[in-house]
Amino acid sequence: MALRSAVMVWQYLTIQGDGYVFEVGCLLRRHRPAVTVHGPIKYALEKGGRFYLQDEDGREFKMAVIEKVLTQPSTQKPAENAPPQN
Predict the structure, then answer these.
(1) Pairwise CA distance, residues 66 & 84, whole Å
(2) pTM for the model
(3) What are the residue boundaries of the structural domains of the chain, listed by start?
């Protein structure tokens, strides 16, 4: 009886979106996402952190969001009751 070893391969991508940079990853099964570095891609982010990527061949990949970074810091005004900053 032969033993089989299971090898799990993950692929990680950094995707710059509208106001955010996403670090996402997926477990590779049959195909790697066909994407071009600095090229346009289609993606969707749902509530609960579900991230879907559609590659250049039209295949859809469900990915895990590792990190979500705001690219443009918010320009909030200081609170009116806050003490003056010197």
Answers:
(1) 38
(2) 0.69
(3) 10-70
